[in-house]
Amino acid sequence: MSSSTTTGDARTSAEAPPASEFREPPREAWYCARSAGSLAPGAMASVTVLGDQIVIGRTKAGRLFALRDRCPHRGAPLSGGQFDGTAITCPFHGWRFGADGRCQAMPTLVDGDVTDPGQVKVGEFPVRESDGIIWLYMGAGLAEAPPVPALTLAGATRCRVAVSVLVEASYDLCVLSLIDPGHVGYVHNSWWWRPTATAREKIKDFEPLPFGFRMKAHKAAANSRGYRLLGRPQTEVDFLLPGQRIERIRMGERSIINATFATPIDARRTLLTNVLLSDLPQLMPLAPLIGWAGRAFLRQDQRILELAQQGLERKPTMLLLGQADRLGQWYFRLKRDYAAARHEGKAFSNTLAPERLRWRT
């Protein structure tokens, strides 16, 4: 998938990474693998990110781990076996693997066999847990990667709601939906949020961040009924590589964090996850309603993204025009420059500049 708009300095073919490196989601990034429901000590679960099947688990001692979900013996998924809180037993031949991926036992071995189970190891993936979200890192060179996002609240979290929707569409298309102001009044045209008939001009100031950009703090839109219920608070929005949108809504000393993350499952499927955190005590009894609204929003995006994907499969190009599409241009520029930095073994440097943008929505 490509844009017809060029958005950066020229590079020679010798300097540029292969096209696949910036058209595909970067492997050197943290992705949201699990957001809802706790992973208890002694539990494990299978997830797929970038086409890799991974088993995540938590030992009885509370240590979180992530291993390639494939026994190196005959390929059986380890997630189909038994986990006793210390080691996973493969369901095929009973090989046991510790949380570090090292094989501890091969039941078919007999006394005198020179085979050393400890020489066999399943691949590990860096894994972190923050704000109830489990993050997986899929590549190499962890030190130079964008950090795990921190959804920090000033007060204690009183309300947490997480919902996810699997979208049959490419990663780039789904990420663009996170930073596309033009679609809101059409895709999310709802009496309870922002009807299309109330469209008006918006002026927003943006500034670069180390791995993305920020819509600077401003008073929330007057034509959004959702924001009006909160008294039109102050809000700012961060977009961070690889595909994270974090909105911080402030009402005096209280706040709401509304974050959406895109996770590439494989070349044709993307998981969209929305997590809302707040220290507003009055939101706690509204958690079921908030979950319903969050899922409804994601379903609306799902429907239009899957329709758009059908069109892009017939002609895989997009036009990014006007100031409302500048954010999409920035995304492709950041993604390309990040891939180039990794390809050249250099530290990534964000070359975006502050800018004021205007659009109608």
CATH topology of the largest domain: Naphthalene 1,2-dioxygenase Alpha Subunit, Chain A, domain 1
Strand order in the sheet with the most strands: 12-18-17-16-15-14-13-20
* Total separate domains: 2
Q: Judging by the overall fold, what is the CATH architecture of the largest domain?
A: Alpha-Beta Complex
List how many beta strands DSSP finds. Answer: 20
Mean pLDDT: 87
Low-pLDDT runs: 1-15
**Full CATH superfamily name of the largest domain:** Naphthalene 1,2-dioxygenase Alpha Subunit, Chain A, domain 1
Terminal residue distance = 26 Å
State which percent range the strand residues make up.
Answer: 25-35%
Fold and architecture overview:
19% of the residues lie in helices and 32% in strands. The chain has an eight-stranded antiparallel beta sheet with strand order 12-18-17-16-15-14-13-20. Strands 6-7-8-9 form a four-stranded antiparallel beta sheet, with no helix packed on it. A three-stranded antiparallel beta sheet has the order 2-11-10, with no helix packed on it. The relative contact order is 0.18. The chain is of the alpha+beta class. The chain has two domains: 30-137, 3-layer Sandwich (Rieske Iron-sulfur Protein), CATH 2.102.10; 147-360, Naphthalene 1,2-dioxygenase Alpha Subunit, Chain A, domain 1 (Alpha-Beta Complex), CATH 3.90.380. The chain contains six helices and 20 strands.
